[in-house]
Design brief:
By secondary structure, the protein is an alpha+beta fold. It is 22% helix and 31% strand. The strands form six sheets. An eight-stranded mixed sheet has the order 8-7-9-6-10-11-13-12, with helices on both faces. An eight-stranded antiparallel sheet has the order 18-17-23-14-15-22-19-20. Residues 1-55 have low confidence and may be disordered. Residues 31-41 have a biased composition (Gly residues).
Amino acid sequence: LDSEVSPSPLVTGPSFRPPGPAMGGTLKARGAGGSSGCGGPKGKKKNGRNRGGKANNPPYLPPEAEDGNIEYKLKLVNPSQYRFEHLVTQMKWRLQEGRGEAVYQIGVEDNGLLVGLAEEEMRASLKTLHRMAEKVGADITVLREREVDYDSDMPRKITEVLVRKVPDNQQFLDLRVAVLGNVDSGKSTLLGVLTQGELDNGRGRARLNLFRHLHEIQSGRTSSISFEILGFNSKGEVVNYSDSRTAEEICESSSKMITFIDLAGHHKYLHTTIFGLTSYCPDCALLLVSANTGIAGTTREHLGLALALKVPFFIVVSKVDLCAKTTVERTVRQLERVLKQPGCHKVPMLVTSEDDAVTAAQQFAQSPNVTPIFTLSSVSGESLDLLKVFLNILPPLTNSKEQEELMQQLTEFQVDEIYTVPEVGTVVGGTLSSGICREGDQLVVGPTDDGCFLELRVCSIQRNRSACRVLRAGQAATLALGDFDRALLRKGMVMVSPEMNPTICSVFEAEIVLLFHATTFRRGFQVTVHVGNVRQTAVVEKIHAKDKLRTGEKAVVRFRFLKHPEYLKVGAKLLFREGVTKGIGHVTDVQAITAGEAQASMGF
């Protein structure tokens, strides 16, 4: 277990426990603040004096890391002007590393030793921290305080503080969360409660505003992909439709935005769910499990998809108001057993308090193996605040260096949705994979059915229904293309810089693992291939070094698209399916062709 999870004092067995008496004191949670660097004993011992029967094992956090957004400070009492400027520069670095969020542990040495400060020193340190935050234009929120009684008769405290500042080149911090789970588990209802600010009536009233089609309202089942937003201001307070009339008002009032991608739970719409996971590039996923049914229907399938695509996920057990406490506990135990199986190899962490939620957010960001579990009700509102605390303080799961590297590359925008808006014209929605996109940019879009790329101009950009001048790598948005003919566009296309000289392919090779097939996987078999925003039927042309494949076997396979050429990149994750047949892998080679060759191969 220790080899799989990043070194943390909180990992003491098969599941995480929040820091408590083992740290030599008590812990008090305050507010809904930011990510935490808190933990329990590191297992590292140091001789100390034993006063009045106090424990002589000093409490430790992991040593401070040079990178990342967590900073340890023993105290910040009356610094000189030179020292103050240095501290401000240091805060700017931590905020940059956390993409707008940083966590300060006051009363902790750089090696992780929890020393603590007296009341007066702590007040002075927090005052200095507030001055530093004002200097960089940030806000601070006290997350929790910890009393440390090791080796001292005087009460001393450690305070954990969230510092949040929206970067100058952004409108708000953004986190995308895909919502998975079996049909009727309460996904749309939970999102309705979070985004509308009103509890459900037990008959699905909260979800009505989320449905996009009449048949969804009539059946109560989601069949399409919809997006919902939940905001948090700089002090960690929820901003939703309960106090804002429009999405624009939510964006203006929020410093952090959670964009929920509501996916379908019914097996009939599995292709839509896969498309949502592969094309919209979620930062993490929320897997919803009904307390009264447990792991049923497509729950295992959605869990497998998240694991296959390496999307970090946390679990919410819903409808606890309909069950006895023993039923909820049984469902949680069932989830813990599945998560610990060799195929998952996750570390479950049951969240039962605000302190747990703070700890879970930090551990979830630091280790992909940690899986927080929440138990709540959308009707009674039980434990709903714990989920809000977790979402508010969950830091970005990609670091600033990766973001900078992507922004240095040429522009590439994935087309996931296509609309026609009155008085605006053709509009496309999707995610910017790399580079920077500005209003007025000249791009090329394709490949078309005959393998060509067409020139176009970006007229305007919107993010979360608010105007935006500049779009950066990793951000999702809608782009207005003016009078560009919608009939020439389709899902799966890309809009790229003309300098990229994009290549297209009809034939590609991928290294795959066959997850399941009823008989044998042979040449000539047809499957639906998902690669990013590309979704198309392809035929197996060749299986290298083998005649056939069985469940669990690996091979390099050559595929050919049946309908039209696509834009693929080597290394892209691949997922294919056909009925009960499923497999995963990555693209290893693409056979680039010209537009003329594409027309000939596709029969134009």
